[in-house]
Design a protein that fits this description.
Layout (H helix, E strand, L loop, with lengths): L1 H18 L3 H21 L2
Length: 45
């Protein structure tokens, strides 16, 4: 199981890195996900 997770992380890392080329881009991506979660939580109240 550990090997499977390790392989999945190794395959996903380059894809994630190419999706946002800078640390600032990564921060924006994480912020957008947080905003989406917050919006969904507000809508379901």
């Amino acid at each position: 199981m550990r090997k499977l997770i390790l392989v999945a992380v190794m395959l996903a890392a380059p894809l994630m890195a190419s999706a946002c080329n800078t640390i600032a881009g990564f921060g924006k991506d994480v912020g957008a996900v947080g905003d989406a979660v917050s919006d969904t939580a507000e809508k379901t109240k």
